[in-house]
Design a protein that fits this description.
139 residues, mainly alpha, 2 helices
Length: 139
């Protein structure tokens, strides 16, 4: 009878040790897989943060470029309006078909056109960006 009790106790202790080993290896495997998953998710989070920061910087740069472009457009429009006012005053005294365009007005418009073409490099790829040759004014 003592042998049966000792044998049952030994088997019970061995079963407990086996169960504990199974649980230990089972949860160790889960821990390792969760650590790998956590590492992957952390890397993906860092990549997403980098992409968001890059996009934020790109948007900031594009906004600066757009602001500078708008300022240049406003400056060109103001300068153009001033030139138009001066030319209209010069041409108001007589009809255009009877009076030739003044050389100063022609040169002013030509210089303005060439300055705009030079400041905006290769805006139209179908046309060259070289300056327009001067046109002689009518006498």
């Amino acid at each position: 009878m003592i042998n049966k009790i000792a044998l049952m106790t030994t088997l019970l202790v061995m079963a407990c040790i086996g169960l504990l080993m199974f649980l230990a290896f089972h949860y160790y495997g889960q821990t390792v897989s969760q650590a790998a998953s956590l590492s992957t998710l952390t890397q993906q989070k860092k990549e997403a943060e980098f992409i968001v920061q890059s996009q934020g910087l790109s948007v900031g740069i594009f906004n600066q470029i757009a602001g500078a472009t708008l300022n240049d457009q406003q400056t060109n429009q103001t300068a153009s309006q001033r030139r138009q006012t001066i030319i209209k005053r010069v041409l108001q005294t007589a009809p255009c078909n009877l009076v030739p365009v003044a050389a100063a007005a022609n040169d002013s418009l030509l210089n303005h056109y060439n300055a705009v073409r030079q400041s905006s490099r290769n805006t139209d790829t179908l046309r060259s960006a070289r300056a327009v040759p001067a046109v002689s004014t009518a006498q």
